[in-house]
Amino acid sequence: MQIRTQIYVVPCPYLPDLVFYQEYFIRTRLNGATWDDFLKKGWRHFGSFFFRPQCHGCRACIPLRVLVDELTPSPSQKRVLRKNQNTRVEFVKDEPDEAVYEIYREHKKFRFQSGVEDIYAFKSSFTLRITKGLLSKYYVGDELVAVGFLDVTPQAFSSIYFIYKEAYQHLSLGTFSVFAESREAARRGLRYYYLGYWIQENHFMNYKANFKPHEIMDWEDYRWKQPPLPSLP
After folding, report:
1. Which residues contact 173 (CB under 8 A, 6 or more apart)?
2. Cis peptide before 75, with omega less than 30 degrees from 0?
3. What is the pLDDT of residues 27-38, one digit of tens each?
4. In this structure, how many other beta carbons lie within 10 angstroms of the beta carbon of residue 230?
5. What CATH code is carried by the domain that includes residue 97?
6. Mind listing the pLDDT tens digit for each residue in 43-66?
7. Is 17 inside a domain boundary?
8. What is the largest CA-CA distance in the chain?
9. 184 and 148 in contact (C-beta within 8 Å)?
């Protein structure tokens, strides 16, 4: 599919003192097979806004995907799985509601010390209607404590965003979610779980290399390969 794109220049959201050249297009609907092809070429999206970096002389944003059938926890990740043995996960097609929005507001405030858009803008950014999508809902007892926003394609899950309540950060729910969502992808016969961009110099983004085995994309030819990425403690 041929889609006309444009370039939008903004301060880099990932690394200080840099400029982010963002290739983008707007689309109100995209089928799964087409989105599969775009994911393979480094694209991401929030709502109808689809984007990828096209920065001059910088390739710090490296697309990374997990091989779901082969994902193996490290010793520290095994401890996280044990801590969450009573955490219940549901995968639903529901659109995000006010309860999910409240978790999002809290998460943005304590995690990034930033304000958030109103609920209408939030729902526009995280609607599941643009591409086929799911919410992953995490419960401790009957309490909803975390939510993942996922795209579903014929070959993969793609993680759009993950949020959780501050009171439950001791459970390392972000790490747990990668295993829970990868297991669900494998159960559905999918091959990949896209984690977005791995950025070694950004402490919010560099944890992704710890999920193995994984593949990263080469921006020169869009080929995916398993590299010798460094492990983090």
Report:
1. 84, 87, 138, 145, 146, 162, 164
2. no
3. 999 999 999 999
4. 9
5. 3.40.630.30
6. 999 999 999 999 988 999 999 999
7. no
8. 49
9. no
Helix (H, G, I), strand (E, B) or coil at 73: coil
- Residues 226, 215 contacting (CB under 8 angstroms): yes
DSSP state of 199: -
The full length of the chain comes to: 233
Nearest to 60 by CA among 15, 13, 7, 8: 15
- Rounded CA-CA distance 213/175 in Å is 15
Residue 176 region, left (φ>0) first, then alpha (ψ -120 to 50), else beta?
alpha
**Domain extent for 178:** 64-197
Per the CB < 8 A criterion, the answer to whether 80 and 175 are in contact is yes
In a domain, 28, yes or no: no
User: Which pair of tokens denotes residue 200?
Assistant: 């070694």
In tens, the pLDDT along 166-198 reads 999 999 999 999 999 999 999 999 999 999 999
Provide the domain count of the chain. 1
Task: For 144-183, give the DSSP string.
Answer: EEEEEEEEE-SSEEEEEEEEE-GGGGGG-HHHHHHHHHHH
| pLDDT tens by residue, 204-213 | 898 999 999 9
Inside any domain, residue 58: no
150 domain residue, yes or no:
yes
What the block records as the tokens of 133 is 């999508």
